[in-house]
Structure formats: structure tokens, C-alpha cells
Design goal:
By secondary structure, the chain is mainly alpha-helical. The protein is 73% helix and 0% strand. It contains 3 helices and no strands. It starts with a helix and ends in a 14-residue tail after the last helix.
Amino acid sequence: MEGLSKFDELRRKTDREIVNLLNRKLDSGFALCASAGSAAEPSEAWAKAQRAYLEAARLLPLLGGIGPEERDGLRRRVRDLERSIERLERQLARPAEGCQLQLASCA
């Protein structure tokens, strides 16, 4: 029985670490979207945001021991980042007048 409780303890710790990593990836992706308009290479910011999104999306299914509300919140944030990246991609595809990118905040 003691082995099972150690396993449960380890699983909870692992889930917390995955949640923290997932949130850091999402925060990074949102920050990259928001700063892309002032970045020297907006397409590089887009690519990094896209990577952060893909990494976060891969981490989400690994979470087995979190509650449904927390899982739903993380899913919502992953979807929000995906939409932000799509908006940024559309902005990059059609530069504004005078070849200046005027990107709306993605966050």
C-alpha cells in the first residue's frame, strides 16, 4: 500500500510540474504574439509562438491527475493561443500601408 501512495505522490508532483511547464509555454506564446509588431523579425516571433503552442498542446494530454476545471482552463488557454497565432499569421500575410506591420495585440 505504501508503494501506491508513493506512486500517487509522484504522479501529483509530475502533474504539477507539467501544469507549470504548460503555463510557461502558453505565457511565452502569448508574449511573443503581443510583441511581434515591434520585433525585428515578426515572422520569427510567429514561429516561436507556434512552437510554444505545439509544445503546450502536446503536454495537455499528459495530465491525468488534475481536476476537470483546471483541465478545461488549460484547454481554453491552448485554444486562445492558437487563435492568437492565427490572427498574427493573417497580419503577417498582409502588411499594412507603407510596408509597416501594424499588428494587433494577440493576448
